[in-house]
C-alpha cells in the first residue's frame, strides 16, 4: 500500500514526523474501485472517511421522483463521503459512485478517533479539512440562492476547469441545479459572446 500521496497532503497542512507517518499506514486501507462501483449507497451508514489517490467520484441524492442531484465531485487529493452519516452513524441519504477506475485510502471512524487521541496533530489537520469543507458549502449555498444559473456555471468553470474532461455535462447540470438542455443553452450563449 502506498500512502505517500496522503502523507504529502497532510504535510501541506502540518508536517508529520516518522511516528505519525507510520501510524497512518496502520489505520488506512487502500481499495481499488471500478468505474460505476459504489463506496456508499443510500440507506447504508458511512463507515469510512475516503481520500482519493487516483480517479473521480460523485456524491448524489436521488429524490422521490428518481432525479439525481449531484452534491459533490472528488478527484485526486480530495476527500469524499457523507460526513453527517460518518459522525452520527445514521443511514445516509447519499450515494458515492466512482466515475472512473480509482484508488482510494479509507479510515474507519474508530481508527480516526484513536489517531486523534494518540497524535493530536491529526485532530488539528482534520479540523482544517472540516473548516475548509464548511467554507465551501457556505459558498455553494449562497451562490445557489443568490446567483443566476449562468453565474453558477461561470464560477464552476473558473473554480474547477479540470473536471470538464472527466465529468459529463449531465452531471455538471445536476450539480448546478439546471437541466442539461438549459446548460447547453448557457454554453451556446457564452460561446457566441
UniProtKB/TrEMBL annotation:
Stored InterPro entries: cNMP-bd_dom, cNMP-bd_dom_sf, Env_Response_Regulators, RmlC-like_jellyroll
Q: Which organism is it from?
A: Algoriphagus boseongensis
Q: Where is the Cyclic nucleotide-binding domain?
A: 16-116
Q: What is this protein called?
A: CRP-like cAMP-binding protein
The superkingdom of the source organism is: Bacteria
Gene Ontology cellular component list: cytosol
Mention any Pfam family matching this sequence: cNMP_binding
Q: Which SUPFAM superfamilies match?
A: cAMP-binding domain-like (SSF51206)
Q: Which GO terms describe its molecular function?
A: DNA-binding transcription factor activity
Amino acid at each position: 500500500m502506498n500512502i505517500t500521496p496522503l502523507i504529502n497532503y497532510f504535510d501541506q497542512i502540518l508536517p508529520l514526523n516518522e511516528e505519525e507517518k507510520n501510524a497512518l499506514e496502520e489505520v488506512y486501507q487502500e481499495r481499488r474501485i471500478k468505474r460505476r462501483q459504489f463506496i456508499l449507497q443510500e440507506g447504508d451508514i458511512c463507515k469510512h472517511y475516503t481520500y482519493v489517490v487516483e480517479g473521480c467520484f460523485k456524491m448524489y441524492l436521488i429524490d422521490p421522483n428518481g432525479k439525481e442531484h449531484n452534491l459533490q465531485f472528488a478527484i485526486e487529493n480530495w476527500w469524499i463521503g457523507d460526513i453527517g452519516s460518518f459522525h452520527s452513524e445514521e443511514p445516509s441519504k447519499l450515494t458515492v459512485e466512482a466515475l472512473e477506475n480509482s484508488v482510494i485510502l479509507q479510515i474507519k471512524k474508530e481508527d480516526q478517533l484513536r489517531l486523534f487521541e494518540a497524535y493530536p496533530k491529526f485532530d488539528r489537520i482534520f479540523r482544517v479539512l472540516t473548516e475548509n469543507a464548511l467554507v465551501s458549502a457556505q459558498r455553494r449555498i449562497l451562490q445557489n440562492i443568490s446567483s443566476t444559473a449562468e453565474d453558477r456555471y461561470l464560477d464552476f468553470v473558473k473554480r474547477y476547469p479540470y473536471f470538464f474532461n472527466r465529468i459529463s455535462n449531465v452531471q455538471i447540470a445536476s450539480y448546478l441545479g439546471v437541466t442539461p438542455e438549459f446548460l447547453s443553452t448557457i454554453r451556446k450563449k457564452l460561446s457566441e459572446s
